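Intended use. Records like the one below are meant for learning the mapping from a protein sequence to its folded structure. Do not use them to infer anything beyond what is encoded.
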Amino acid sequence: MMTGVNIVHVPYRGGGPALVDLMSGRVQLMFDNLPTSLPFIKEGKIRPLAVTTTARSEVVPDLPLVADFVPGYEASAWYGIAAPRGTPTEIVGKLNGAINAMLADPTIKTRFTDLGASLLPGSSADFGKLIADETDKWGKVIKFAGIKPE
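Structure written out for the chain above:
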C-alpha cells in the first residue's frame, strides 16, 4: 500500500509451512515474526532483509528498518493480557503491576530478547491505546485492500 509494489499474498496455516516453502524456494519472500525465523537466520538457512518495527532488534542489530526505505512503515506482532470488561480497577491494577514486575525481571528480559522479542511494559491505559492505534492502522489497510469477511 505504501510503495505500490504488487506482492501476491500466499496464505499459510502457520509460520512453519511458510518457512519450509521459503527455504525450498517455492516462495521468494516472507514477512515473519522474528522469534519464528530466528533459528533459521542463525543457521544461515534464510537471509533477513530488514525488520518491520520502529526500532532495530537487539538480537539482529545490523538489520535495517523497513522504515529506513519506506518512511512511516511499521508492522509488528504483539501479545497482551486482557481481563473481562467490568473487572474491578484494583484487580486490573494488581495484575498490571505483577505483569510489569515480571517483565522487569532480568532473567525474563534476557529470555525474551534471546527469542527476538521486545517487551512493552506499561499501564492498562497504554495497552488500550495500543489496541486503538493498531485497530485504526490495520483498518485503513483493510479498506485500501478491499478486504471483505468471507
